[in-house]
Design brief:
12 strands; 8-stranded parallel beta barrel
Length: about 400
């Protein structure tokens, strides 16, 4: 059985000067001033405003995207089990060390979403994972929601819990070095979606976003429209318009500063079980049309989900946003399988991670061709009823 000692030969990363030092030791309590605008609108001025804008722009930097490594310990255990490793903290630490210490990862990755254990964890060499990320010029982020639960009164739909205590948790995460946050809620097309579920998703996202900004964290706004279903791409487009209209209505109601958020929309695709498939160009066309109709250009970054080819096609067309990626399995699958829990495979596993990160970096620039990509890397990531 492999253990954390697998990674003791991981390379040492050179330090940089990115958001460290005094910036990480600012007070966790922000002061907000609410003033009236002549038009009657309420405008909130937060002491974190400039920092939020800077962080959002850093994450939305050219040729880079987000590595989502915020799987819960249970889900991380399933990944480890797939390569024959026991779900222990030592093995989770070993795998996370492999990811964050890949040499040159910051050339392609601008932000890493962490699970709470990881935010407070050290590498197998005893170095804080947050510090390793900063030395790679990668902004540490944190998953702050408490997971999906059944939504009473709905059509077998879900809502995302975690608002209770979020302000104090966010303040503590900021003190630990996190600078952006993630909150995942979902909308199911086969189950409606009901007006209740859409409103609950939008309101929860808006409250989370406002609380995050008040505590120095850039919120990723993610109403994930699940791929499950037989619906066609036009039905996905219809629902996505409805969801994003509701989301931005409540973001404005909660005085969220649009320049200090990032979005993680699902790309507009047919349902996973739909017989009519869409080309990357069609997906790009529908998704960009959705963004143009619903997303203010003040938003600095769109960290989209789904395939590399779709992302590349989106960046073939002019748009006012930084359209990039926020991937978990799409970046990690080949890396994990290459590693297999064996110390002699660490370097090859890190190279596999860098290959996938580099491919998506090219897609963000609209220059991806798929040349040199393995068939494993090109496989779809859809899992029916996926939870984490």
């Amino acid at each position: 059985m492999a253990s954390a000692s697998l990674l003791k030969t991981s390379p040492v990363i050179n330090k940089t000067d990115f958001i460290k030092g005094q910036a990480l030791r600012q007070p966790s309590v922000s002061v907000s001033v609410v003033r009236s605008h002549p038009s009657g609108l309420t405008v909130r001025a937060s002491s974190y405003a400039d920092e939020l804008i800077k962080t959002a722009k850093t994450v939305a930097s050219p040729g880079r995207g987000i590595l989502a490594m915020d799987e819960s310990n249970a889900t991380c255990g399933k990944r480890l089990d797939s390569i024959g490793l026991e779900n222990t903290e030592a093995n989770r630490q070993a795998y996370r060390t492999l990811l964050v210490s890949a040499p040159g990862l910051g050339n392609y990755i601008s932000g890493a979403i962490l699970f709470e254990e990881t935010l407070y964890q050290s590498t197998v060499d005893g170095k804080k994972i947050v510090d390793v990320l900063l030395e790679q010029n990668i902004v540490p982020g944190i998953k702050v929601d408490k997971g999906l639960v059944p939504l009473a009164g709905s059509n077998n739909e879900s809502w995302c819990q975690g608002l209770d205590g979020l302000a104090s948790r966010s303040a503590a995460y900021y003190q630990q070095g996190a600078r952006f946050a993630k909150w995942r809620t979902v909308v199911s097309i086969p189950n409606g979606p009901s007006a209740l579920a859409v409103k609950e998703a939008a309101w929860g996202l808006a409250r989370y976003a406002a609380i995050s900004q008040d505590n120095g964290l850039v919120p990723i706004v993610e109403p994930e429209i699940l791929l499950d279903g037989e619906h066609n791409i036009d039905r996905t487009f219809e629902v996505a318009q409805q969801v994003w209209a509701e989301v931005f209505f409540y973001l404005a109601e909660n005085n969220v500063m649009f320049e200090g958020i990032l979005l993680k929309p699902s790309m507009v695709t047919p349902g996973a079980e739909c017989k009519e498939r869409a080309t990357p160009e069609q997906v790009a066309d529908y998704t960009l049309k959705l963004l143009q109709r619903r997303i203010p250009p003040a938003v600095p970054g769109i960290m989209a989900m789904e395939a590399t080819l779709n992302l590349n096609a989106m960046n073939q067309s002019p748009n006012p946003w930084h359209v990039s990626f926020s991937y978990a399995r799409a970046l990690q699958n080949t890396c994990l399988k290459t590693w297999g829990g064996r110390p002699e495979n660490v370097q090859a596993a890190q190279e596999a991670l860098l290959t996938r990160a580099s491919a998506n970096s090219l897609a963000q620039l609209g220059k991806y061709t798929g040349e040199g990509e393995s068939e494993e890397a090109k496989k779809g990531m859809f899992v029916k009823g996926y939870v984490y």
